[in-house]
Design goal:
It contains three helices and no strands. Helix 1 crosses helix 3. It has one domain. By secondary structure, the chain is mainly alpha-helical. InterPro entries: Integrase_recombinase_N. Keywords: DNA-binding.
Length: 49
């Protein structure tokens, strides 16, 4: 689920999901920070990593 969320997020603006750059991963997490709990953000970070 976390990986699918990231890849779907990457597709909209045309970001490459692999390899995930720190800038793309940071933008993704920043965008989710207002709607997700810290544990969910950690899970997404692990999935992207």
């Amino acid at each position: 689920m976390a990986w699918a969320d990231f890849t779907a997020w990457c597709e909209a603006p045309g970001h490459a999901s692999l390899p995930a750059t720190p800038e793309v991963a940071g933008s993704f997490l920043a965008g989710r920070a207002t709607t997700h709990k810290p544990a969910s953000l950690t899970m997404r970070l692990v999935a992207v990593g």
